Amino acid sequence: MAIAKLNLEDIRVPADVPGEVADDYRRNLHRATRGTGRLMLFAGDQKIEHLNDDFFGPGIPEEDADPEHLFRIASQGTIGVFATQLGLVTRYGRDYPDVNYLVKINSKSHLLKTKTRDPRSWALNSIDQVLETRERSGLNIVGVGYTVYVGSAYEHEMFAEAAELAFDAREAGLFSVFWMYPRGQSVADEKDPHVIAGAAGTAVCLGADFCKVNYPQRGSEPRGELLRQAVKAAGRTGLICAGGSSASPQKFLQDLWDQINVGGAVGNATGRNIHQRTLTDAVRLCDAISAVTYAGADVDRALRIFAGDEKFSLPG
User: Fold this and answer.
1) Can you give the residue range of the structural domain that contains 291?
2) Does residue 212 carry a catalytic annotation?
3) pLDDT value of position 2
4) How is 69-104 classified by DSSP, letter by letter?
């Protein structure tokens, strides 16, 4: 199924975007979504989020231990944006100037478990620091990201910080992606479709342009159909699904196809399923994911692209 191209003038500009940066906002969204309104986000924020668990161990190629592996993938694979912390962008970004960067503003490690204390993720950098870095370096910083733990005892602090970030980002012509995760001692089931839909609806209220949620699950019910509730709740905020833990290419790409074509998601956000591979395989998987996301490819074609039996380039 071919995906309709989105013209710059077709991009809806929120009311809080100043007129003088409205074109910048449109261009950044158009660049990140490859002119489709859909988003393929390569997530590289796990260096803090998961520490070294995702980068070293059985079955993980040695090259993944080097942070530059993420940038090599982002520069060679077909992606929309590469999301990572500002510190990594400043260290490696100038060697990879063609990548579209989304700066992840807050992060926390996974060592302190929810049973010990509800999660709270603080901002590492300010929007001003992001803008100053963009100005000095000339890098393609097109947006910002932020994690909100809905249901945490500290949700009110994250709500306030996220809402301010979304407003400040759009004042500068950037867009925002919020990681919306129900998590805390009051959250009985983080994959509950009703709770995930509530988190998606919260993202709209906070001003997010996109929200990233976990793929809902309830017994043996079709997960793509369960996702529809969250997509409806997200309204004009584009909903994308997290890639989750490592899966076979067949299962991963089938889930992705279902998320978009059954559930109504507008893309995906994938980390370890991409970077826990050799550079060649990681680049091919990026291309396969983008074929489904940006070109409407079916799973069979995406698997051929991953296997190297078919080349993929963005249409147009």
Assistant:
1) 8-304
2) yes
3) 65
4) HHHHHHHHS--SEEEE-HHHHHHHGGG-TTSEEEEE
CA 138/CA 132 separation, integer angstroms: 10
Residue at 243 is within a domain? yes
> What is the rounded CA–CA span in Å between residue 303 and residue 308?
9
Give a yes or no: residue 313 inside a domain: no
Query: Which residues touch 66 (CB under 8 Å, ≥6 apart)?
Result: none
Kindly give, in sequence order, each residue whose CB lies less than 8 Å from that of residue 116, ignoring residues fewer than 6 positions away: none
CATH value at residue 231: 3.20.20.70
* Whether residue 316 has pLDDT greater than 90: no
Query: DSSP per residue over 161-200, as a string?
Result: HHHHHHHHHHHTT-EEEEEEEE-STT-S-TT-HHHHHHHH
Q: How many domains does the chain have?
A: 1
Amino acid at 307: A
CA distance 4 to 296: 10
Torsion of CA 262, 308, 242, 234, to 10 degrees: -40
Q: What percent of the chain has pLDDT over 70?
A: 99
Residue 3 lies in a domain: no
CA separation for the pair 3, 129 (Å, rounded) = 36
Helix, coil or strand: residue 269: strand
**Identified catalytic residue from 181, 232, 251, 311:** 181
pLDDT averaged over every residue in the chain: 97
Taking the model in full, what pTM does it have?
0.97
Structure tokens at 53: 């668990």
150 inside domain: yes
- 216-260 pLDDT, tens per residue? 999 999 999 999 999 999 999 999 999 988 899 999 999 999 999
- Computed from CA positions of residues 301, 302, 306, 308, in that sequence, does the dihedral angle turn out positive or negative? positive
Choice among 212, 215, 294, 311 that is catalytic: 212
